[in-house]
Amino acid sequence: MKPIRTTCAYCGVGCGIVATQTADRRATITGDKEHPANFGKLCSKGTHLGETIGLEGRLLHPMIGTRQVGWDEALDLVASRFAEIIAEQGPDSVAFYVSGQLLTEDYYVANKLMKGFIGSANIDTNSRLCMSSAVSAHVRAFGEDVVPCSYSDLDEADLIILVGSNTAWCHPVVWQQIEAARAARGTKLVVIDPRRTETADCADLHLAIAPDTDVCLFNGLMKEMRSTWRIDGRYVGEHVKVGPDFWQSLGSEDVAATCDISERQLQQFYDLFANNPKTVTLFSQGVNQSTSGTDKANAIINVHLATGRIGKPGTGPFSITGQPNAMGGREVGGLASMLAVHMGFSPEECDRAQRFWQSPTICTAPGLKAVDLFAAMAAGKIKAVWIMATNPAVSMPDANMGRIGLANCPFVVVSDCIADTDTGAYAQVRLPALGWGEKDGTVTNSERRISRQRGFLAAPGEAKADWWIISEVGRRMGWSREFDYPNAATIFREFAAQTGFENGGQRLLDISNAAEISDTEYEAMEPVQWGGASPFSAGRFATQNGRANLVAITYARRADNSRHYPLRLNTGRYRDQWHTMTRTGLSPKLSQHRREPLVEVHPDTMSRARLVEGGLALVETPHGKSIFRVLSSSGQRRSDLFVPIHWTDQTSGGGRAGLLPGQDRDPVSGQPGFKNTPAKIAPYVPEWTGFLVSRHRPVSPDCNYWTRIRSTHGWVMEFAIDGDPGPLTALLPEGDRAEMIDARRGIVRSAVINGGKLQAALFVSRHGGLPPREWLAAQLDDSSVSMVEILAGRPAQPAPDRGAIVCVCFDIGMTTIIDAIVAQTLTSVEAVGKAINAGTNCGSCRPAIAQLLALTEVNAHG
Fold first, then answer.
1. Which residues, other chains included, contact 857 with Cβ-Cβ below 8 Å and sequence gap of 6+?
2. 10 Å Cβ neighbour count for 456?
3. Entry pTM
4. HSE-CB for 735 with a 13 A CA cutoff
5. Closest Cα to residue 676, out of 555, 554, 561, 552?
6. Structure confidence at residue 743 (pLDDT)
7. CA-to-CA distance for 516 and 627, rounded, in angstroms?
């Protein structure tokens, strides 16, 4: 098969990929060495995309309820129900909830249909949950949602500050670029994060500030720069508007005490910033996912504007997006708080959009943002919602409230590539969409670079492109000509034309030079960065007076409900998983790094709460509760907990992080605060614990806690149960069964073998003492097995213990790495790579290898 250049399906780095189909639904994946976002590098998720393109779990046909139907019947129903509800209740009675997983062309058609033809701005996106505070901060400061930086700035900076970003895990290719810059030019690195992550472990300075004190820290930095004469008066005088009360707004807090760091650390941070004018401050979810996220971002931007560290190589405040096309959605108006192509809702802008679209109506005010949209559904105000390429029943804060909204909405449509999702369970209509590897269109990454995403797999079943599905509904609602798109290139040309329509240079987003490209040119389009490498290099901004704004920000301490909920809960991502695991959960390789949802707790907190390492704990907030496996972590602040966001009802009976955060949100952006929720924790001690290894996907058990994860040859399920464990044997398939039951010791072991091949094995214990899972899971291959060894849970000749998997790409465990370090006296990550390959492919595990090197050195010296 011919190699196809396309773009990665995951984070906003926007890495180029070369995919070569090797079989019906298989492909080899390599990095595109010519793509300027990654120059051939890939992280673990991108490297293993080829494991996620099978048809397992795919939605292949339109469904009305449980009935498979044809496209005409499904689309006619969607169009007629939306039209009826609009006619009876008005356009604001319907809504779209879309996703950064959509391509720009999909996003464009959805936004056009809702805002220009239905006439409501009730279209919001899951980007509201991850990057909307950065959008609001950019608009307040620059007059337009423009990211001022490029990845090339990381190569030229003398100081890189990471704020609320576990870059080594969440944007590993950017992390590799930072590592290279540090090696080449000695770039200093500051990490500002309440957690001591693998990213923070590598920093020259880690500031483990108290949650949500970022505004205080950066206001303090601004005051320090002013008091030490570091403000760039010339730049401010020529290019920045300073309000009369700005300097007074910075406050008088004791910064070190408020942020809970030492005076020495604070002064070290001030000195590093003062002495390194070429500074890039990269910020991500720890800034944005906050009830003060917009203020945090503006406090960062303020310091860069006041010191002239913007619009020059190696400088700038750099918001790095979480999803592959969050930026593309922002460009076309996918957020309820913007119109289209970076326009707002002034009468002039609304008139301009309506004339360009030649639409019968136009929305004239912002629509409902995500949390408000689902609240309106719960209240019965939204009568129909169309959810595209996202899973809000899992990802919304206070997820039970989101589910109430879905349950109360009379007509729910879901477009997705996956058949069974937590959200799809609420849908009256499910529409099969194309997945990655099948889609054709464009995406825009964090540095404003538009890249082609090209399909290399045939559309499975009756799956269709999202833009086609939306267009067909628009045509059936009476707008045949306006939604007559023969291909994605036609949509891109229209979008490009709209960016330049009556723009006059006011908005920096202008790709109208691409409005006339041919289909052939679109197919061959190379990555292009709108705005150039440094869009503010001329010192002109998209405000009426052409100046950037210093936004007055006053730090406000959050109320602390400490008596009932003395801890603070933080949520986030794991290195090898993505969102709700509908894609990464299909990969056996990616499933090995963290097999269960873990609550990370400081050892002192564990002792006070009487938690046990590897045991279970109940995490509770004012909004919900869920059970997690306990992991001791000295990188946690004593008052904080951390849990991952990925597990759903499809993969776990616990670990549901979405149940825990509340609906409190940023007053400007509407972005929920996922990072700082009052919480408490207590041990959960079940009567029985156990696990199952199975060749085939086991059903979900009826028990207090369970998780189900892929392994190389099948599945591994963990569970905890109170009461009689007997019903768990229903998890076993039919076949020849052998059992070992020791009632006195509380042990039940069962295995099913057919034709000498292991089909499944169940281990249950009242008092713990369960055998390791790895060897048993490996016996699910096609080799003949010994029933005696299976029931014993170990081979007659035990193999060396590799330890927990560190390097996913080469399947190398912690023990193997430590043994190599000690035996060969290895002293660097590079030396480990040369010796055993660990860390030499995607590089995502390099910080973990560095930790093992440091640990081994400490142990060697007593």
1. none
2. 20
3. 0.94
4. 20
5. 561
6. 65
7. 55
